[in-house]
UniProtKB/TrEMBL annotation:
<feature type="domain" description="VOC">
    <location>
        <begin position="29"/>
        <end position="146"/>
    </location>
</feature>
<dbReference type="InterPro" id="IPR037523">
    <property type="entry name" value="VOC_core"/>
</dbReference>
<dbReference type="InterPro" id="IPR004360">
    <property type="entry name" value="Glyas_Fos-R_dOase_dom"/>
</dbReference>
<dbReference type="Pfam" id="PF00903">
    <property type="entry name" value="Glyoxalase"/>
</dbReference>
<dbReference type="InterPro" id="IPR052164">
    <property type="entry name" value="Anthracycline_SecMetBiosynth"/>
</dbReference>
<dbReference type="InterPro" id="IPR029068">
    <property type="entry name" value="Glyas_Bleomycin-R_OHBP_Dase"/>
</dbReference>
<protein>
    <submittedName>
        <fullName>VOC family protein</fullName>
    </submittedName>
</protein>
Length: 146
């Protein structure tokens, strides 16, 4: 579905809502993602290397977190190690922003010991480019660059 103007954006409790031809749509239905890990130091080093930023660590109860940086009005997420967080290549697929150079991120995945399972692929004007990899913990993760 192609959306054409007029589109108005409203921010309510950090939730972006668009209005298009009288239909209200939530732009941020999903607001948080947790990527399960078994070895926090290994996973943290892997993601810091491929995405080239620092994750902030914290222990909450019996769970260990490494938080991805969040810019204003962005969704967030973390690596999580705990008794109910089991890495898997199956299940829900998480797509991480691969901007500005998705191919370079995939190259760093290989260097960091991950497995690229889909090279940079164009999926159309509305999806841009995607790529997929298996991380250091065995999770299947996607990258996207619009």
């Amino acid at each position: 579905m192609i959306l054409h103007p007029p589109i108005r954006l409203y921010y309510c409790s950090q939730l972006a809502i668009s209005e298009w031809r009288g239909v209200v749509m939530m732009n941020r239905l999903f607001i948080w993602v947790e990527i399960p890990v078994t070895d926090m130091e290994r996973a943290k080093a892997f993601y810091e290397r491929i995405l080239q930023f620092e994750l902030q660590s914290m222990i909450l109860g019996d769970e260990e977190y490494a938080f991805f940086p969040i810019k204003e009005e962005q969704n967030g997420g973390a690596l999580v190690k705990g008794p109910h967080h089991i890495p898997s290549p199956d299940g829900v697929r998480v797509y991480v922003d691969g901007s500005p150079d998705l191919a370079a991120v995939l190259s760093r995945v290989r260097e960091a010991g991950g497995e690229v399972i889909m090279e940079k692929t164009y999926v159309g004007d509305h999806g841009g480019y995607i790529g997929k990899f298996i991380d250091s913990e065995g999770n299947r993760i996607g990258l996207q660059h619009l």
